[in-house]
């Protein structure tokens, strides 16, 4: 399918998503919210990869393959993150990053 | 310009799909007005205790296991699509992959993640 | 397409070793799991031997996706030696504080495998997978003491920063892919050498600097490392400080010196500023620290600054200097952290004040600590001096200000290193009972001490090996 859509639309969408995720990851205090923000950043990367693949190298599936790897690795990371958060919650009854202050500057 | 038709169609179908359910239920649902209707849960029983109760962490363990094994299926589809090109070597490699996953399941089983305590 | 599995000998054997350790741990009843540490140790030694034998192997797999050359071999040997020293030196610490867990050893093996993949990675996918295999294994290791709040806190902090930095690196990859149309590093190199530097490429490059800056804990991306270093079990801290940092530098070199050589004009000043900031902040903030692990963490931030200096000129001499310095950094850091682990075993404290009179309680530990700290400070005739000499001599022409800054900061670092030494040698111990360390820890300490002194007096062999590896890096 030929397409007249401009690749820059996808790039802008992905840049916006990435910026939103980065802002969330840096500003949120809840550990789970930070994890979600990181997922948003990874989604931005996936949009970028798939869109660029479509426009630059439509005969090879580099971007798609990369995106699949990103998705699976992100799932593993989130699983691990939630496991640690559960363990911390059992230990301290909070998931607020400001309360993670057993160690000081 | 014709490309935008696809986008517009996608948008319209998405809106119809979302709004349609709400609208249909609004049109056809039976209307009965009484004070139990306004309660949080319509079980006929008054709510007891705080609603912020603790769930068993077992739920989370199951959810984690599900997430991890669920996502690995993503590799099975491309493999299945090009199965004929890959031949016997592809089959062996996929079995190695599954074997590693089974090791993970074995570990979770042994650690008691599958038991409901 | 022909796929030469013999090029993957070391990785495959490492993978089998990891699985074997894991399965063995599942099968063997928990009472008789003591041997698993020894099993993993001997397996790692065998893989190290195999890697040394395959030193001359050269090859490219899957159109440049995976590169096997001396440069990669050098970093594989470095990681394997670190893993071996860390496991051997802390067998007792692990038994007493982490319990008899086979997961610990198999996770170390998989973290090392991740490092080996990073060293050989030739495109963005294999690089990303290597980084994530290493990082996820390290998160598990950092949070291993799941009853200890500090360890868990360090785990979640490491996880969040690692996820963030991975996302930033990935975004950089996707931008470079957009600018050049390829994800193979050598093809990226061809594209950047021919074309003009597009804004997309520059943006991607900045993302990579930021993301990998997190991984090597360069200022201003260093905030996580003191907390993680303090909270993690001490052997894991040593492994994290050496292995993860060294291979992150391997990835940096591969990406910037090989891949983005065409835009060297755009990134050299960026890296120089990061190096300068890391040296300044790392050394200055180390001064008021009272916990030995935090002190070593800030010192390791400063070491990242020194190592970044070798990257600035993108020359073979710089690569050789980075490789040389990271190899001797292995011995100095593992030695220092092994002392921390054995002392913690006895007195249950990481505070510098509790190291008073260590020379009377454990003369060997105090001597090793002295030598390692002085080597990190760069006092001749120890190895650190030679390493710093190689690093800074690459930037004498062009970046003279970096050399002066490095000299001043090294002098400042002597101050806080000597503070620890004074406490150990001058003060009287609160409790004069000798600290008994166990023969494995003793042997590790002696190895690190001898290596640090030997490489300082007679650096030529390692220097030549690093040289030949650096030359193989440019033969493409």
Automatic annotation (TrEMBL), chain A:
GO terms for cellular component: NADH dehydrogenase complex; plasma membrane. It catalyses: a quinone + NADH + 5 H(+)(in) = a quinol + NAD(+) + 4 H(+)(out). It holds the Pfam family Oxidored_q2. It comes from the Bacteria. Its EC number is 7.1.1.-. One of its GO terms (molecular function) is NADH dehydrogenase (quinone) (non-electrogenic) activity. It is found in: Cell membrane; Membrane. The chain crosses the membrane at residues 6-25, 32-52, 64-89. InterPro entries: NADH_UbQ_OxRdtase_chain4L/K, NUOK/Mnh_C1-like. Keywords: Cell membrane, Membrane, NAD, Quinone, Translocase, Transmembrane, Transmembrane helix, Transport. One of its GO terms (biological process) is ATP synthesis coupled electron transport. It is a multi-pass membrane protein. NDH-1 shuttles electrons from NADH, via FMN and iron-sulfur (Fe-S) centers, to quinones in the respiratory chain. The immediate electron acceptor for the enzyme in this species is believed to be a menaquinone. Couples the redox reaction to proton translocation (for every two electrons transferred, four hydrogen ions are translocated across the cytoplasmic membrane), and thus conserves the redox energy in a proton gradient. Belongs to the complex I subunit 4L family. NDH-1 is composed of 14 different subunits. Subunits NuoA, H, J, K, L, M, N constitute the membrane sector of the complex. PANTHER family: NADH-UBIQUINONE OXIDOREDUCTASE CHAIN 4L, NADH-UBIQUINONE OXIDOREDUCTASE SUBUNIT ND4L. This is NADH-quinone oxidoreductase subunit K.
Automatic annotation (TrEMBL), chain B:
InterPro entries: NAD(P)H_OxRDtase_bac/plastid, NADH_UbQ/plastoQ_OxRdtase_su3, NDAH_ubi_oxred_su3_sf. Its EC number is 7.1.1.-. The keyword Transport applies. It comes from the Bacteria. It is found in: Cell membrane; Membrane. The chain crosses the membrane at residues 6-28, 59-80, 86-109. It holds the Pfam family Oxidored_q4. It is a multi-pass membrane protein. GO terms for molecular function: NADH dehydrogenase (quinone) (non-electrogenic) activity; NADH dehydrogenase (ubiquinone) activity; quinone binding. It catalyses: a quinone + NADH + 5 H(+)(in) = a quinol + NAD(+) + 4 H(+)(out). GO terms for cellular component: NADH dehydrogenase complex; plasma membrane. Coiled coil: none annotated. Keywords: Cell membrane, Membrane, NAD, Quinone, Translocase, Transmembrane, Transmembrane helix, Transport. NDH-1 shuttles electrons from NADH, via FMN and iron-sulfur (Fe-S) centers, to quinones in the respiratory chain. The immediate electron acceptor for the enzyme in this species is believed to be a menaquinone. Couples the redox reaction to proton translocation (for every two electrons transferred, four hydrogen ions are translocated across the cytoplasmic membrane), and thus conserves the redox energy in a proton gradient. Belongs to the complex I subunit 3 family. NDH-1 is composed of 14 different subunits. Subunits NuoA, H, J, K, L, M, N constitute the membrane sector of the complex. This is NADH-quinone oxidoreductase subunit A. It comes from Desulforamulus aeronauticus DSM 10349. The lineage of its organism: Bacteria, Bacillati, Bacillota, Clostridia, Eubacteriales. The gene is nuoA.
From TrEMBL, chain C:
It catalyses: a quinone + NADH + 5 H(+)(in) = a quinol + NAD(+) + 4 H(+)(out). Residues 121-412 form the NADH:quinone oxidoreductase/Mrp antiporter transmembrane domain. InterPro entries: NADH-Q_OxRdtase_suN/2 (IPR010096), ND/Mrp_TM (IPR001750). GO terms for molecular function: NADH dehydrogenase (quinone) (non-electrogenic) activity; NADH dehydrogenase (ubiquinone) activity; quinone binding. It comes from the Bacteria. It is a multi-pass membrane protein. It is found in: Cell membrane; Endomembrane system; Membrane. NDH-1 is composed of 14 different subunits. Subunits NuoA, H, J, K, L, M, N constitute the membrane sector of the complex. HAMAP family: NDH1_NuoN_1. This is NADH-quinone oxidoreductase subunit N. It comes from Desulforamulus aeronauticus DSM 10349.
């Amino acid at each position: 399918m030929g397409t007249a859509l401009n690749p820059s639309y996808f790039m802008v969408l992905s840049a916006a998503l990435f910026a939103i995720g980065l802002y969330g990851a840096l500003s949120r205090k809840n550990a789970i919210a930070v994890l979600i923000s990181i997922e948003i950043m990874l989604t931005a990367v996936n949009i970028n990869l798939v869109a660029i693949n479509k426009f630059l190298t439509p005969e090879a599936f580099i971007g798609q393959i990369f995106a699949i790897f990103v998705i699976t690795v992100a799932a593993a990371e989130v699983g691990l993150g939630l496991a640690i958060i559960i363990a911390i919650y059992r230990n301290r009854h909070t998931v607020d990053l400001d309360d993670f202050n057993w160690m000081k500057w | 310009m014709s490309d935008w038709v696809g986008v517009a169609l996608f948008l319209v179908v998405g809106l119809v799909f979302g709004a349609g359910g709400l609208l249909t239920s609004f049109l056809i649902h039976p209307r009965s007005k009484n004070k139990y209707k306004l309660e949080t849960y319509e079980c006929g029983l008054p709510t007891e205790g705080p609603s912020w109760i603790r769930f068993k962490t077992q739920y989370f363990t199951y959810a984690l296991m599900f997430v991890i094994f669920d996502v690995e299926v993503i590799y099975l589809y491309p493999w299945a699509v090009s199965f004929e090109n890959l031949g016997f070597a592809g089959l062996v490699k996929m079995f190695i992959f599954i074997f590693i996953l089974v090791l993970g399941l074995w570990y979770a089983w042994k650690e008691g993640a599958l038991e409901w305590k | 397409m022909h796929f030469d599995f013999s090029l993957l000998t070391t990785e495959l054997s490492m993978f089998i070793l990891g699985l074997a350790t894991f399965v063995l741990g599942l099968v063997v009843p928990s009472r008789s799991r003591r041997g698993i540490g020894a099993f993993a140790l001997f397996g790692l030694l065998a893989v190290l031997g195999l890697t040394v034998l395959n030193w001359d192997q050269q090859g490219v797999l899957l159109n440049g996706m995976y590169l096997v050359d001396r440069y990669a071999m050098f970093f594989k040997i470095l990681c394997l030696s670190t893993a071996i020293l860390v496991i051997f030196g802390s067998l007792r610490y692990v038994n007493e504080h982490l319990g008899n867990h086979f997961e610990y050893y198999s996770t170390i093996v998989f973290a090392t495998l991740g490092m080996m993949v990073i060293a050989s990675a030739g495109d963005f996918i294999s690089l990303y997978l290597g980084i994530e295999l290493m990082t996820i294994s390290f998160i598990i290791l950092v949070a291993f003491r799941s009853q200890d709040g500090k360890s868990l806190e360090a785990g979640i902090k490491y996880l969040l920063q690692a996820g963030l930095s991975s996302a930033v690196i990935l975004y950089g990859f996707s931008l470079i892919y957009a600018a050049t149309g390829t994800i193979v590093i050598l093809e990226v190199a061809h594209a950047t050498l021919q074309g003009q530097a597009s804004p997309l490429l520059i943006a991607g490059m900045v993302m990579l600097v930021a993301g990998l800056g997190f991984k090597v804990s360069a200022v201003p991306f260093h905030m996580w490392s003191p907390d993680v270093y303090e909270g993690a079990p001490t052997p894991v801290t040593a492994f994290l400080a050496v292995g993860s940092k060294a291979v992150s530098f391997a990835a940096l070199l591969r990406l910037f010196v090989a891949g983005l050589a065409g835009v060297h004009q755009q990134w050299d000043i960026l890296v120089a500023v990061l190096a300068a900031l890391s040296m300044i902040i790392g050394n200055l903030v180390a001064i008021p620290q009272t916990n030995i692990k935090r002190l070593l963490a800030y010192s390791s931030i400063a070491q990242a600054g020194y190592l970044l200096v070798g990257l600035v000129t993108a020359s073979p001499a710089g690569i050789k200097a980075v490789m040389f310095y990271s190899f001797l950094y292995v011995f100095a850091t593992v030695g220092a952290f092994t002392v921390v682990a054995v002392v913690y075993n006895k007195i249950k404290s990481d505070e510098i004040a509790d190291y008073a009179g260590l020379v009377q309680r454990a003369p060997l530990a105090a001597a090793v600590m002295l030598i390692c700290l002085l080597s990190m400070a760069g006092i001749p005739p120890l190895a650190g001096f030679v390493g710093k000499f190689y690093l800074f001599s690459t930037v004498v022409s062009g970046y003279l200000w970096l050399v002066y800054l490095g000299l001043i900061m090294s002098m400042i670092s002597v101050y806080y290193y000597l503070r620890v030494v004074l406490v150990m040698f001058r003060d009287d111990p609160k409790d004069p009972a000798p600290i008994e360390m166990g023969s494995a820890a003793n042997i590790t300490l002696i190895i690190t001490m001898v290596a640090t002194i030997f490489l300082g007096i007679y650096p030529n062999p390692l220097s030549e090996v690093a040289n030949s590896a650096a030359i193989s890096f440019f033969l493409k």
